[in-house]
Amino acid sequence: MDGSSNVAELLGPSRFVNRELSWVRFAERVIELSEDKQLPLLERIKFLAIFSSGLDEFFQVRVAGLKDRLAASVRSKSSDGMSTREQLKALRALLNPLLERVGIVYRSQILPELKDHGVEILNFGDLGEDDRQRMVQVFNNRIFPVLTPLAVDPAHPFPYISNLTLSLVVVVTDPISKESRIARVKVPPILPRFVPLDDSTRFVTLESIIGAHLDRLFPEMEIGHHFSFRVTRNADLSLEEEEADDLLELVEIELRRRRFGRAVRVEISQGAPAWIKEVIIDELRLHRDDVYEVDFPLDLSGLWAVYDIDIPEISGPHFSPVTPVELVESTASRRVNVFDVLSSQDILLHHPYESFSTTVENFIEAAAVDPSVLAIKQTLYRTSGDSRIMAALIRAAEAGKQVAVLVELKARFDEQANISWAKRLEEAGVHVVYGLMGLKTHIKAALVIRAEEQGSRIYCHLGTGNYNSKTARAYEDLGLLTSNPEIGRDLAEVFNLLTGFSRPGQYQKMILAPAFLRSRLIELIDEQAEREDAGRIIIKVNNLTDPAIIDALYAASGRGVKIDIIARGICCLRPLVPGLSDNIIVKSIVGRYLEHSRVFAFGGTKENPVRIWVGSADLMERNLDRRIEAIFPIEAELDKARILDILRLNLDDDMFSWSMDSSGFYARMETKVGISVQDRLCELATEEARRTQSSSIETIF
User: Fold this and answer.
1) Percentage, residues of the chain above pLDDT 70
2) By the 8 A CB rule, do 172 and 183 touch?
3) pLDDT tens digits for 443-465?
4) End-to-end alpha-carbon separation of the chain, Å?
């Protein structure tokens, strides 16, 4: 038994960081960027919106799960040894200071700095007379018709409050009987959260407009105080797939049930009297610790409307994704045939630096119209509403090609959109399947079968990101376009597994979860451990929580292997613990783009040549045990060198990086050299595009 194993036994559960608390520390890094005055103002606003949306999802899923465990008296503890009650208590202790920071940055920094640039977020009471009159017209024409006041009294029970809906609670008094009641007014989610004034650089909060016109909703009544509040409910689907005859129908039923999920949080504007809070708590069957009072507008995800303002001096730098040189047209009249290119080489893609549109979307569109293409197969986890890929698949099916699409109906918060796409695809004649029972299909893959002179040939796209043109402009992801026959055969077998009836097998190139991925990654880690201090591991993921993987990394560290973990979000591994993880460094990069690619690199010397896998899987129990995931090898030497350069830039980043200490806390790294991996990759992509453009001009003339 090596030394690290002894230390692990001594530390026990404390060798792990709590998963939920680790997420909150990620949220803290996002808030820190909203406070960073070195960043463009609209970028800081974006980070407030991201924090708000992320916190909503965290409560709907993670906190809701903890509350379910508490209600069911589940006594098992988390991997770090905390009970459910301890976790909930610790979360509240961390979240309250974070919300105070959000209030301070919003009131003291964001609002004043916006005003300096002619942008204002106002309440109705802040408006001058002319603006008030315009907002009165907006209220009369657009807001008032969709409002429904709901009284609370013996004849009107406390109304159902739907998930994440903003509401006003209003004290209303009858002037004759002097009897006071409370009422609820739902703030319609179909209306903009921040209503623009005519100049489109000033906004008025929707709830303040409604609050100023409550007399219209309760005529002849005396209007007392009113306060904004918002309820968060358990939004995790509970599916009994084994008992379902039709998964699509089951998911549709569960989506309707989601609206009635158990309440897990109430946000309320600061200053609400205790008796009103007690009414809300009692009616929603919550605890006082489930109430969060804030002194800023509820639901700051509405700030995306402000972020979209076109004011160059407060916007982030503009970057246009480039097309890889292999796919650039050499003359104005000649279009590149992607299949001709892929027949002789792979193309490694790095989004958003390289265009999703001119690569992945064009690949599927080319397959849809190419008369030699016989079949297209693709997975769909999340996509955009205006998806060119889905339109191309529909055209391909209508043209008589065999098209099969695996639609993951259980992709959290995208279920309804995926149901809609599934129905549209089926109507067009696409073979639509929903994956394997009990497992989410998270693999990102497309397969094209083309008839050629030598016989049928398979062309593939594999990636780390979703087939979503919108997120491809904001998420950092890697992908591979290839006609490698071994990968093609592997992927064909994977689709047979997903659409047919078979068991997962050992593939030549790809490694799949849940059958093999954890065990194979541990083998790769152990192989480096055998090399002791000549070993080398670099892992880049969104989240690292799996205890078995973490213990394997601890053991490798104990043998002298140098290990770098780049984990954007949650990390349950403790680095730099003497005797346990002395050789492990953990850093997080949070910047302009969402770091989303997953890369696993082992080795890196002449005697220990580097092997690199890329794929869809984070190192979490859910990904390794309850999802269909895949990683695939990068084998071309130039592509491996490129990924190593990307990883080195990640490790060298000292502008948007946080380092983790042995206790699980993060500190922003001191900027010494001034390297931003994202800025540098934008620069490199732009330089390459200019060189390619110059080369094309020389070819033409």
Assistant:
1) 92
2) yes
3) 999 999 999 999 999 999 999 99
4) 70
Secondary structure element (H or E) that encloses residue 648, with its range: helix 637-652
Measured CA to CA, the distance from residue 389 to residue 360 in angstroms comes to 9
Residue type, 22: S
pTM above 0.70, yes or no: yes
In angstroms and rounded to an integer, the radius of gyration of the C-alpha atoms of the chain is 27
- Point out the residues that are catalytic: 442
Looking at residues 398-402, what average pLDDT do you find?
Answer: 95
SS3 label, residue 518: helix
Amino acid at residue number 115: K
Task: Kindly list the strands in the beta sheet with 149-152, ordered across the sheet, starting from the edge strand earlier in the chain.
Answer: 149-152, 180-186, 166-173, 222-233, 263-269, 291-294
Residue 26 burial (C-beta neighbours within 10 Å; 0-12, 13-18, 19+): buried
pLDDT value for 250:
56
pLDDT for 697: 45
Q: What is the pLDDT of residues 641-658, one digit of tens each?
A: 999 999 999 999 999 999
| Residue with tokens 């003497």, as numbered in its chain | 578
Closest residue by Cα to residue 509 from 527, 482, 481, 490: 490
What's the rounded Cα separation, in Å, for the pair 266 and 68? Answer: 17
Q: What share of the chain is helix, strand, coil (3-state, %, to 5)?
A: 45, 25, 35
* CB neighbour list of residue 505: distance below 8 Å, 6 or more residues apart: 493
Determine contact, residues 352/678, Cβ cutoff 8 Å. no
Alpha-carbon distance of 610 to 599, in angstroms, equals 12
Task: State pLDDT tens for residues 541-555.
Answer: 999 999 999 999 999
Instruction: Give the residue from 161, 352, 173 showing the smallest Cα distance to 263.
Output: 161
Residue that the structure tokens 């997120």 belong to: 471
